[in-house]
Structure formats: C-alpha cells, structure tokens
Amino acid sequence: MENVDSQAEKARWRGRAKPQAAEAKRAQRQQQLILAAIDCISRKGIGDTTVADIARVADMAVGSITQYFTGKDALFSAALQQMAQEFETAWRADMALAGTHDAAARLRAFLLAYFRADVCQRKKVAVWFAYWGEVRARPRYRAICAEFDLVHDTMLRDLCASLIQEGGYAELDPARTAKTLAALAQGLWLEHLTGSDGLSRDELSMHALLGLRALFPHDADAFADPA
Amino acid sequence: MENVDSQAEKARWRGRAKPQAAEAKRAQRQQQLILAAIDCISRKGIGDTTVADIARVADMAVGSITQYFTGKDALFSAALQQMAQEFETAWRADMALAGTHDAAARLRAFLLAYFRADVCQRKKVAVWFAYWGEVRARPRYRAICAEFDLVHDTMLRDLCASLIQEGGYAELDPARTAKTLAALAQGLWLEHLTGSDGLSRDELSMHALLGLRALFPHDADAFADPA
DNA sequence: TATAATTGTATGAACATTCATTCATAATTT
DNA sequence: AAATTATGAATGAATGTTCATACAATTATA
Fold it and tell me: CATH no. for residue A35?
C-alpha cells in the first residue's frame, strides 16, 4: 500500500509510459495475495494461517509477499481494510439505488446491504469475526475498524433521525435506534456464522426487516418481507 | 477431568478419606489455569497467547499445565466450556428470580442476563469473540458452543412462544422472534467490545429493552427502562 | 544488456511439549 | 510415636518443530 507513492514518483521521474500496465499488474498481484489471505483466514483463522498457506493459495512464492507488503501483518491489515472498503462501497451503492428522498427506503437498503450475496458469504463473515476476535489485541485492526465504523455509524444515525422525524416516532432516540439496528445486523452475521441451522441470507434479511418493522411500525409497508 | 473417576474409585477401594481435600486442591489449581487463560486471551488474543504467558499469570510452572490438561488446546476448550457454563448459570438464576408465571418478566430476565456485571465484562466479551473468530477453524470449539446454544435457543424460543400466545402477537413467529432477539443481544456485545464510544452496560441493557418493546408493544410496561 | 520481478531455500527466533529431578505429604512399618 | 518408604504434584531446562523473514539465485521484461 505504501509503495504506491514510489510507483507514481518513478513514473514521473522517467517521463516514460508504462506505469499504466505495470501498475495494473502490480495491483492485480496484491489483490491475489489479499484474496488468498481472506480465503486462508476464513478456513484456518488468523492465528493458524501461515505465509506458506497464503502463497500456496495465491499460487505465488512466499518471497513475493514481502515484495508487495511489509510483512504478514501488513497483508492482514490490507485485507481488513479491503473488506471494510468493499462493504462501504456495497451499502453506498444500494443506497444510491434507493434514491435520495424516501428515508425508509434508504434505511432498508442500508441494512439489507449486510445480507447481499457478495457481502454475507460465510467465508467473509468468518473473516470479520476473526478480526473482531483480535481487535482488542491489535491496535492496527482497531484503527481500521474505527475509521470505517465512524462513517457507517454516522450514516445509520442520520437515516434513523430522518425517518424518526418524517414518520413521527418522537419517542425514539436516533442514536439509540441506530445502535440497536447495527447490533441486530451484526448479531445476525454471527448467527449466520455459528448457527447450526444455517440461516440463509434471505432468512437473515427477513429477521432484519422484522426488527425494522418493530421499531418503525408506521412504515411496515416499506419494510415488508420481499415476495 | 478424566481422573475424577479414578479418584472416586480409589476412595471406594481404600474406604479412607482424603479425596475431599486433594480433589478440591486439584480443582482449584485447574481453575487458576482457566482464569489465567481467559485473562491472557482477553489481552493478547488466542493466537498470541503462549503457555508461558498463562503460566506466568497463573503463577505456576509451564510444566504444570500438562499436569492438569492434555495440552494448550484442551485448556482453551475447558476455558470456553466454563465461560459458556457460567453464562447459562447466570441466565438460569436470573430467570428463577423472575418467577415462573409472567412470560414477559422471564423474557426480560433472560435477555438482560447478557448485560449482568459478571457476564458483560469487556474482558469476557473479548474472549467470546476470540473464540467465535476461531469457531470455523476448530471443530472442538464449535461443538462446545453448539451444545450450549441448543439449550439457550430452545429456552429463548419457548419464552417468545409463551409471550406471543399470552400477549396476542399472532403475527409474530416464535423462532424468528427469538433469533432476532439473540442476534440483538450478541450484536450489542460486539458494540461493547469495539464501540469507540464505550457503551456502558446500562446503556446496552436499554438498547435491548428498546428491542423488546418494539417487538412486544403491548408489554411496553414490562420492558420499560429501569428507573 | 540492464533492470525489475520472482522464486524458494537458509536462518534463527519463538513456541508447545516432554521429562528427569525435587520435594512435600501420606502410608507403612518398627 | 518414630522412622522409613511410597506417591505423585511441581518444576523448568532441553528438545524438536513451526514459522516469518531475508536473501542469493533465477527468470522475465524493456
């Protein structure tokens, strides 16, 4: 991640063209490693994933890891960052689709983004929990999570505030309502991960919608289960 | 754990007394190790906790761990088992206090047990997530969790079913309502663990009560915030 | 040909486990 | 009661393994 600058610098320095292709290839290789790391973490956990595992899955040599990341830790941090970034991109996209005016529709889109097919894979959820399991011990992970949580929480609180205003839910506190919904969504992820009766993504969505209807009964229609 | 039988056997065989004291001391020593393991895991995570760490905190020799547990893994499993057992004991006790007739009061007691002072310590929540982070990778952890989840889920579903019947919430499905509440409680644990604005246990309780009131509006009184 | 990228082995640090020894207490014998 | 023997808990240094990182050799690219 930190070599991006030196790449750009080099391009400027030489004045030649090629940074396009070279940089793209470099990015693709980094991506390969990040994907492999995520895959390994989901199957073996953070503690038991070795660089050899990652190299094997990425179909690269162990030495290449140092080429693209300072070390194992940096790779793991980059993987976490990417997961967080991907999720943020996902809910932003879904919200954009829901328009800009209807607060209920936007809130619905936001919360259901948790259960998108590309987000709510068992594999990825396992990785989220692997990181959360280490978050106390590793300040770096904590910092990355905090950065994305901030914008996530702010958005959710604003959505709740809008709906509370528009829908006439004077008794609800926006911040508390938002935290409650966030907790519900993340708790459902845990259910997805550990539940013996493997709840499908659709079922998880319906649990989330049940929570939304309960909190915002006037908008039950907007939060109805999909047909 | 597996020597208990041979101990009892010996007592029977010799007819003499002493197993009392010896067994108690043994149990106390095991306890010391389990407590030390929980402490270390909460501070360093499962992956970075070494037997040396545990021995230091327990104020014992590294070799003593093998004396009481097959190995590091067995100790960790025992610690998880104990945490799960403690939690089950906690909610059972709180429910007993809530009586046997009032479904709402019992459900309230059950859910608020998540936020008892002795259960909802940051330290212990960190350990829960450390285990969940590894649960995919370690079948042993998964089995222990599944065992306790079963009785937990059954109880919660029965509670929801009772209240749905008594309170006239025909539109609610007991199983789905139960899962939703469980997810909310566990999600609030995560909030407790990672939330930058460290929510106090009281605040967490209030979030849970908000969820209960939303789902069961006829019983808002029973689920009111504490004064 | 010069430069960059890739590879896989070499290295040493970190670690869990093993085990010979010590020591306090209980059991047995005088 | 005193002396002797037996027991098994406790210890921590020794052992062998696992792993991340560094680096020298090799291959690809420009």
Answer: 1.10.10.60
